[in-house]
Amino acid sequence: MGLSKLSGMTKNLVIVESPAKAKTIENYLGKEYVVRSSYGHVRDLPKDNEAIDIQNGFKPTYEIPKDKKDVIKQLKKEAENSELVYLASDDDREGEAISWHLKEALDLSDQKVRRIVFREITKNAILNALESPRGINLDLVKAQQARRVLDRLVGFELSPVLWKKIKTGLSAGRVQSVAVKLVVEREREIEKFEIESFYRISAYFLIEGNVVLKADLQKRLKNEDDAREFLKSTIGSSFTIEKLEKKPSKKSPAPPFTTSTLQQEASRKLGFSVTQTMTIAQKLYEAGKISYMRTDSVNLSLEAISGAKNEILNEFGEEYLRTRQFKTKSESAQEAHEAIRPTNFSVRDAGADRNAKK
Question: What is the pTM of this model?
């Protein structure tokens, strides 16, 4: 049966995470598609000690939270009236888990469901994703489950200790608990460190009447007497430059942004917190302005390099153009992913938000 002959059926349902993203994507797709949002995760562990069966391989039990029951009810209704359901959550561990939870909560068959991913919200990226759907990556889902289970187990064990010893309401997790341990160990090392004084000696030479040359003594002197003795020994001495080398300096551009380098630069140059940076980047991504903002790769697609090249040529000319391809050093980085970049290099307007423009 052809799509056009399906009476009363929405031809295709696309489910994304956020309503802002849904609105942008729906503008790119025709009447054959309806785009809806899951508003993030749709299932989670119940808030009790029975959520994880430790005796049977740490098997988790999931439930649909009260605030998501209406969302699931509506999505289920739309899914039943659709021929195909495209799960289009983010292309990362959390996104993969959201797709899997949607499939389970909506009781979708393998025949009816398609998993699609894209790293930028542009018409080309969306259409390409629809042309190359895949199945749900269960390895990524299991990775997310392991993270969630660890969060719960560590939190349930350590948080009561914090409430008793420090303050009620504090939480401990798999990341900050280890981070605190590292900070404490470092602080103890600092406390044990024995301070040793030493003296450095620098000399300033006047060359050819107006050039000042600074030279540092290459060794440290242990006490003030040794330093003064050395200075006395140099009185009346003649000094010569043994070797003078002139080398051209070269400065390379910084690699394209990953999540961590974007956060660092936004903090250093704009004074943004990590949370503020990621909130602004999320909005820019959902508006189709930048590629996906969670990445550890510095790779750029050929399309992105071509876009940057054309913009530099038009704006500054051939002499300022040098095409280069950065490579990700981290072995764990996902090479298929791209660095954070503008989706369209010719677009200079980031919208009305002042911080988004920055």
Answer: 0.72
